[in-house]
Specification:
The protein is mostly helical. The chain contains nine helices and two strands. 57% of the residues lie in helices and 4% in strands. The chain has a two-stranded antiparallel ribbon with strand order 1-2.
């Protein structure tokens, strides 16, 4: 059994990063990694990040921004490094803040809301796609305001706390 131990040590850098997550979480990270690895070479680099941002509608990402992201890793970003980086970022993370940060990607101006049509398109065309019924359920529970905006800050609060914040 010695070869298995050596392999684990090489992958996890001393502690096994795969033990930090359950199988379904690892599968979701693998899907995210695959989406981001645009050129399918098994590594995420600056160009993969640029292409991923472009796919999300953000075309003006600065080189410095991409370089800073890549430099967060100790070396080339393969799946094990990717998983380790997320493990470190999520350790002690507040679930509400984590969800809020995910929505902020779609709100570069920091308005606190996103056009409902835009988020619907993103949810139905990217990654783990929503179907029409799931979209209907989401907007039935969290309807857009009269201007067509989704208040994602309130949505995050409800997801993590189970009730609406008082809007005083």
């Amino acid at each position: 059994m010695a070869p298995k131990k050596a392999k684990k040590r090489a992958e996890g850098g001393g502690s096994n990063v795969f033990s930090m997550f359950d199988q379904s979480q690892i599968q979701e990270f693998k899907e995210a990694f695959t989406i981001m690895d645009q050129n399918r070479d098994g590594f995420i680099d600056k160009e993969d990040l640029r292409d991923t941002f472009a796919a999300l509608g953000r075309l003006n990402v600065k080189n410095e921004e991409l370089e800073a992201m890549v430099k967060e890793a100790p070396g080339s970003i393969n799946f094990t490094v990717f998983l380790t980086m997320f493990g470190e970022k999520l350790k002690g993370a507040d679930p509400e803040e984590t969800i809020l940060n995910a929505f902020k990607i779609f709100d570069p101006e920091g308005k606190g809301h996103i056009k409902a049509d835009y988020i619907k398109t993103m949810l139905m065309t990217q990654a783990d796609r929503f179907n029409e019924e799931e979209i209907h359920q989401m907007f039935a529970a969290f309807p857009a305001d009269p201007a067509g905006n989704l208040d994602y800050k309130n949505l995050c609060y409800v997801i993590t706390h189970g009730e609406e914040k008082d809007q005083e």
